[in-house]
Amino acid sequence: MIKIILALSFIVNGILLITITGVMPFLLFATLLIIAGLSWYITMLLKRIADINEDVNELFDSLEGFSEHLDSLSQMKMFYGDETLQGMIVHSQEIMEKIYDYQQKYELDSEFDEEQEGDSDEEEFYGPPPEEE
């Protein structure tokens, strides 16, 4: 109900603006409303994408911890050489590789990527850092 009243209010105000000042101020008014609405919509989408990125990173960290746990479990004497456990480790590593590929494909944090590119360019130009004794 409120949306209908708000829409009618915009229509009536637009008609009044056209009759009082002409078509150009109305078009300016309509353009400003559209820009404000699109800006709000883009902001909401960016917040949603940031939340999704955080969730994916948490999922990736959890699966990485699971993979490390399986590795440590396979090193125990009790399970050493167990084929089922070895299959789980291989499977978890395959899943981790797929998730890592997706994470790289949809990565939103470009600052991290730029820092890595800057480091590699510097290393190519100056060579590897000298070893300390």
Blueprint of the fold:
Elements: H1 2-21, H2 23-74, H3 83-105, H4 110-126
Helix pairs in contact: 1-2, 2-3
Description:
Helices cover 84% and strands 0% of the residues. It is built from 4 helices and no strands. Helix 1 runs antiparallel to helix 2 and helix 2 (23-74) runs antiparallel to helix 3. The relative contact order is 0.06. The protein has one domain. With 133 residues, it is mainly α. The radius of gyration is 28 Å and the shape is rod-shaped. Residues 121-126 have low confidence and may be disordered.
Question: Brief description of this entry?
Answer:
This protein is an all-alpha fold and 133 residues long. The chain has helices at residues 2-21, 23-74, 83-105, 110-126.
Task: Name its key features.
rod-shaped, mainly alpha, 133 residues
The fraction of residues in strands falls at: under 5%
Low-confidence sequence ranges: 121-126
Strand and helix order: HHHH
Radius of gyration: 28 Å
